Amino acid sequence: MIIVLSLLFAFTETVPPGNFYAIEITDLPVPAVNGTATVMVPVPANTTGTLVIPDEVLTGNQVSGWQAEIRETPYGRMLAFTAAGEYAPDISVSFEVVQTGDEERAAVARTCACDTR
Hints:
With 117 residues, the chain is mainly beta. It contains 2 helices and 6 strands; from the N terminus they run αββαββββ. The longest helix is centred in the first third of the chain and has 9 residues, at 2-10. Residues 4-9 and 104-117 have low confidence and may be disordered.
């Protein structure tokens, strides 16, 4: 019995706390948009309104064909994807923040802008 309990603790793994956020938008309209299409999605925030994924990780051009930025709206902060080209490709992106000790390490986990047309 003592040997079994010892082995049980030998194979445990500690997973650091973190946040994961994924966005997938598909089947957008086919017509040319020439930079006029904007897709708004809510961003995760805690009860005080602080983003749980830092805005510098969410914004920029990490999704091919889109420019992302945080915008203030009447409904709270939103992540706005604005088409950067003549058409609007599908959006598939995920973000992860892993907390290690007193600091947070943010990283874009996976990104893909796929034109499935």
